[in-house]
Amino acid sequence: MKVIGVIPARYASTRFPGKPLADICGKPMIWWVYQQVMQVKGFADIYVATDDERIAECCQKYGMKYLMTRTDTPNHIHRIWEVTEMIEADYYISINGDEPLISPENIQAAFPDKVVSDRPFFLSVYRELKDPAELMDTANVKIVLNQDGVCMYQSRHPIPCPKGSLLFAYKKAIGIECFNKKALDFFAHAEMGTLEKIEDIDHLRFLENGIPIYYKKIESESLSVDTKNDLEKVRLIIENKTKENV
C-alpha cells in the first residue's frame, strides 16, 4: 500500500498572510509541521504542496520535498487532487500546514487498513471538545457520527442540539484527511452543493452526494495557528519543550 503525505501550504491566507513562513524559534512553521510528519511510519514520500515561490524557496533551503500547484486552486482538497495528477499512490493523507504541534501518532490513525480502489474513499479523524469556547468557535467544524463512525452531518454550529440529553460529547473534525484517487477525482469535478455553500464546509460535497466519510477518534491537544495570538502560544510551548530537552 503506497501512501503519500501531503502538506498543503498557501501564502495568501486571508486571516494570516504568509502563515507557513511564520517564525517559530528560528524555523518557519512549515518546517515544524514537516518534522512531525517525517516521524510517521508508512509514508512512501512526503511533499509540501504550494502555489507560492517563497514557500518553495523555503522548502529548498530546508531540504523539504515540494510540488507546485496552481495559484487559482480554490481549496486544500483541490490542491491534494493536483498532487494525484503528478504522483501515483493508493492513498493521499493531507496534514494541515498550520499545526506545528501535530502528533505523529494522530497522523498514523488516518492510515486505512486496506486498499480501496473501486469507489471513493475518505477517512479522517476527530477529537472530543472540552472547551466551551471551542464549541462556539465557527472556525471549528463539529460533526455527528452514526454507530459505525460514519459522518451524518457537519456544521460550524454546535450539533446535535442538547434538548433531550446532555450526556454526550461534541466532536470536532481534525485536519488529517485520507483520500483515494477516486474520492479526489469526484471532488475536483463535482459542483458545489447547497449545504456546502451555506455552511462553507468542503466535506459536505461528499455527504450531499452520498459518499461516506469515515472517522476515527484521537486524543489531541494540538493547536492550529489561525491568528498571531495562536502563533505566540505555539512559540511558548515549543520554547518550553526545547528547554526541557536540553
Helix content: 25-40%
Structural class, from helix and strand content? alpha/beta
* Mean pLDDT over the full residue set: 94
N to C succession of SSEs: EEEHEHEHEHEHEEEHHHEH
How far the N terminus sits from the C terminus, by CA atoms, comes to: 38 Å
Question: How many whole angstroms does the radius of gyration measure?
Answer: 18 Å
The rough form would be described as globular
The largest pleated sheet is described as:
9 strands, mixed
Relative strand content: 15-25%
Folded structure, characterized:
The protein is of the alpha/beta class. 31% of the residues lie in helices and 23% in strands. It contains 9 helices and 11 strands. The chain has helices at 29-38, 53-62, 76-84, 104-108, 132-136, 181-189, 194-199, 204-208, 228-245, and strands at residues 3-9, 23-24, 27-28, 43-50, 66-68, 91-95, 122-128, 142-145, 151-155, 171-179, 214-217. The strands form 2 sheets. Strands 1, 4, 5, 6, 7, 8, 9, 10 and 11 form a 9-stranded mixed β-sheet that branches.
Give a short overview.
The protein has 246 residues and is an alpha/beta fold.
Please write out the topology.
Elements: E1 3-9, E2 23-24, E3 27-28, H1 29-38, E4 43-50, H2 53-62, E5 66-68, H3 76-84, E6 91-95, H4 104-108, E7 122-128, H5 132-136, E8 142-145, E9 151-155, E10 171-179, H6 181-189, H7 194-199, H8 204-208, E11 214-217, H9 228-245
Parallel strand pairs: 1-4, 1-6, 4-5, 7-11
Antiparallel strand pairs: 2-3, 6-10, 7-10, 8-9, 8-10
Helix pairs in contact: 3-6
